[in-house]
Each structure stands twice: as structure tokens, then as C-alpha cells.
Amino acid sequence: MLVRLLYASRAVDASPEAIESILAQSREYNPANGITGVLCYGSGIFLQCIEGGRAAVNDLYGHILRDARHRDVTLLHYEEILERRFGGWSMGQVNISKSNHTQLLKYSEGLELDPYALSGKVSLALLEDLAATAAVCGRV
């Protein structure tokens, strides 16, 4: 059974090196465990969607909850799915500062990424929009 999980967290270290470390680790771990998804970051906040088998996704989320690189981890959305929306990415990345800011205004009150102020469905719609407009890199 496939599931989709969407969460937000605050970066303990939002340096480019720290972000790249998280992405590199994801791109190594995820394919071996049947996980795909997208990580969006900006203003020290992560918004991540992970998709895959229920046990694998749940295990990964448990690891993220314990990961010292994240704080204020908040589950935004969890659902059983028929198919993946981000199946082409072992872990795509979106740097929100490099995207079209009108996309953020379409879904939120301001120009900064704040998934804590959005519903899970709205956050997922934002990620889908970013993916559809080719603002995601790291396609596998």
C-alpha cells in the first residue's frame, strides 16, 4: 500500500552545505527503500513530501522526528494513495528563494514559505505547482 506524508520542520542549520547533506542522504537512502518525494526549503523552513510503502514512509518519518537537523517537526498531511505524484524524484529539491514568488502568493498570505500557517492540502498543492512549473531539480 502506498502512502503520502507531508511535514514541515525548521532547520537547525540552513546553510547550503547542511541542505546538500540532507539531500545527498535522502538520494542514497530513498531509492533503496522505494521512497520518492520533494523537499522544499526557504527562510529556514523545510516542507517535505515523501511517498512510498506505508512501513518505509513511517520508518523514515520516525527517523526525521529524531534527526537533530530538524526541530518543530509537524505532520501536515498523511493519506493512502493510488499513485505517486512525485514518482520521478528520489528526492527533488525546491529552493523557494529561486522560484517565482507569485506561486507563494497563490497559496499563502506572504512571500515567505510558512507551511505552519497553511493546511496540508494547500501545502501539497504548492509543491505540485512548483513541480509542474519545473522549479524542482534533482530528478532521477
UniProtKB/TrEMBL annotation:
Any GO molecular function: blue light photoreceptor activity
SMART domains tied to this protein: BLUF
Domain BLUF: residue ranges: 2-92
Protein name: BLUF domain-containing protein
